[in-house]
Amino acid sequence: MKRIFLFLLTNLAVVLVLSIVARLTGLDAWLAAHGQSYFGLLVFAALFGFGGSFISLLLSKTMAKRGMGVQIIDPQTQDPTGRWLLGVVEHHARTVGVGMPEVGIFQQPDPNAFATGWNRNSALVAVSSGLLQSMGRDQVEAVLGHEMTHVANGDMVTLALIQGVVNTFVIFLSRVIAGLISRSENGRGGGAYFLTVIVLQLVFGILANLIVMWFSRRREFRADFGGAQLAGKSRMIAALEGLKRVHEPLPSQQFAAFGIAEGPVASGLKRLFMSHPPLDERIAALQALQIA
What whole-number distance in Å separates Cα of residue 102 and Cα of residue 121? Predict the structure, then answer.
């Protein structure tokens, strides 16, 4: 979940920086003065919205490595654990038909794993030290199958596209509404207009992320199914049950690996901001799956 929020925060920061650049270059003021052309404004919003999203996508591996301290496993390593991880990921990569990703380990006591990258053949898959310590190899194999399914499905690219769409409407609507608020001749294109745009972008950006989080929750179910197909349904269920055991009782306000949430959260407003569905729902979906 930390990786997803790093992506979202970076994406929001990029969009805000691009907005400031537009302000400094006078492009924002020009749009405010010629706001009658909503098509032109929409083109501008799409350019900046998708630009911010795809810059974040291109930086996703670098952000993950630096933000989470991932140590990449050398393909020539003689470490037994490293060689085993590389072998499992290589097998999954061949099965799903993607290029061999980079594989890494990051130091974190909680069991966790993630996959990221700007395309299916240039990905990064990483697991935490806590995952390797708390789970058996069968369970880790299922977790790696889950992450490789994310890679095969191109989830990061799809996430970037969805984020680009919502960015576009955030930028577009914030400028339209700011223009209506500061309709007077003195207000249009001035500092008040710009500040209103920034505030509206922040507010709409938070609301728009509800859509991104909804997509993220749906993709987790698909990745669970993929992990079950690659490593076996029983292993995938065992991995999720292992995560549930490790994190019960859950610390207050904690969202852990695979998006574990406290019981009341699963049915409350906070659920809308979760990037992963509750574990009980994921386990139940796998149990209903008609595969071995």
Answer: 10
Superfamily of domain 73-154: Metalloproteases ("zincins"), catalytic domain (3.30.2010.10)
**Dihedral angle over CA of 141, 143, 148, 150, nearest 10:** 170
d(CA 225, CA 152): 13
Look up residue 125 and give its DSSP letter.
E
Q: Closest Cα to residue 242, out of 224, 223, 257, 226?
A: 257
| DSSP 8-state symbol, 59 | T
> Domains of the chain: which residue ranges?
73-154
Q: Which two tokens stand for residue 275?
A: 């990037």
pTM score:
0.80
Q: What distance in Å separates the CA atoms of residue 255 and residue 1, rounded to the nearest whole number?
A: 8
Residues carrying an active site annotation: 147
Report the DSSP pairing between strands 123-128 and 113-117. Answer: antiparallel
Summarize the chain as % helix, strand, coil (round to 5). 70, 5, 25
Are 258 and 245 in contact by the 8 Å Cβ rule? The answer is no
Tokens for 143, please give them: 């977790």
pLDDT (tens digit, 0 to 9) for every residue of the chain, 292 residues total? 455 555 556 666 666 666 676 667 666 666 656 555 677 788 888 888 888 788 888 888 998 898 889 999 999 999 999 999 999 999 999 999 999 999 999 999 999 999 999 999 999 999 999 999 999 999 999 999 999 999 999 998 998 899 899 989 998 898 888 888 876 545 455 567 778 888 898 899 888 888 888 998 999 999 999 999 999 999 999 999 998 887 654 443 333 344 434 444 445 667 777 888 899 999 999 999 887 6
Could you give the C-alpha distances from 284 to 126, 223, 225, 278, in angstroms and in order?
26, 14, 12, 10
What are the distances in angstroms from CA 95 to CA 100, 140, 214?
11, 17, 28
